[in-house]
Amino acid sequence: MPDPKRVAILISGRGSNMRALVEQASGYEVVLVASNRPQAPGLNHARAAGIPTWTSNSKGVPREEFEAELGRALRDHRVGTVALAGYMRLLSAAFVEQWRGRMLNIHPSLLPRNPGLETHARAIAAGDSVAGCSVHIVTEEVDSGQVLAQAEVAIEPSDDAATLEARVLEAEHTLYPAALAEFVKR
Ligand code: GRF
Prior knowledge:
By secondary structure, this protein is an alpha/beta fold. It contains six helices and seven strands.
């Protein structure tokens, strides 16, 4: 079994969480940044940081085919833990099974509240006074695995989805590296 401290980060876009995980890496090593979108802006940061990257455009590619390729890349880099960070492609049950207990995600809500998309707008619409973010184990069902760590962020009366999102994102950047460092100690 590969060393859990050897971490791959999967991204599809901006990659600000990936950057936080790289910059605050402690007790784990980011050995690969992989993306299903070759133009994901976050890849530039990974390259500049000297981290090996792997990309393959998943668009129009059958899920099993894409995931077989991704799985090979993860094995080639002897990855022990996978951290999803804004990875926007649904994973098959088979892939999730292969990585059961070894794959984490960050979600911008206090799970189990507001899984899925548009979380900030929904929290505001519901009249919540507190929002936040959660790091959880990835299971077949989206945003529903065991929660490992959470950070709360107060919702101000003046907040709209964009201002709340920005503050929650800041909290994500502290929570995720700390939760991952804790996770790989097990
Ligand atoms: C973050 O809000 C994360 O919680 C969610 O997708 C967003 C990704 O942002 N899963 P970034 O690519 O890490 O900047």
